[in-house]
């Protein structure tokens, strides 16, 4: 739900302000790759209606955001292309190599799923780099990134709960480790987010 | 039971 909220915040910003200033297209494209490689079981593995609908929402909204940033006449103009310089392959290749080395089963679907877990953990990095270069971070962008970081932190709590409360729940070391790293990457952002919130000031990251 | 390949999370 926090993940869904983050997407709603981002779409709200882009749609109402007709601007994607401070939003990293690189991070959005990495997320698109995360969802495509993770949800390859969309039609073969039915978990629940909720699960299927959320997968479709995550996939379609991410491609919608990318379309807005690349294709919409007004939104495209507000994109900070010169600042958003992080290279995709810098993250994609190491994650692919890691997925080929550390996975639970050597099948195409499993390796791609593991890749998506690793890539998700670091997909925020281009956004954080852009954020640091952005002078005026608007509230919606700040809250968007906060929610995007919070959902994995909440997963950590959920994993602990499931581990102790669910009889047939098995240890998932790949997901847990990647989730911990993903949350840790946000630690610095969370610190400045709460600091600015407490002081009632505009969010600003130190250079 | 739930194994790594029976994924129920998003």
From TrEMBL, chain A:
It is a multi-pass membrane protein. The keyword Membrane applies. Keywords: Endoplasmic reticulum, ER-Golgi transport, Membrane, Protein transport, Receptor, Signal, Transmembrane, Transmembrane helix, Transport. GO terms for cellular component: endoplasmic reticulum membrane. It is found in: Endoplasmic reticulum membrane. It comes from the Eukaryota. The chain crosses the membrane at residues 46-68, 89-106, 112-131, 143-161, 173-194. Pfam families: ER_lumen_recept. GO terms for molecular function: ER retention sequence binding. Its main location: endoplasmic reticulum. GO terms for biological process: protein retention in ER lumen; protein transport; vesicle-mediated transport. Residues 1-22 form the signal peptide. The keyword Ligase does not apply. PANTHER family: ER LUMEN PROTEIN RETAINING RECEPTOR (PTHR10585). Belongs to the ERD2 family. This is ER lumen protein-retaining receptor. It comes from Chara braunii.
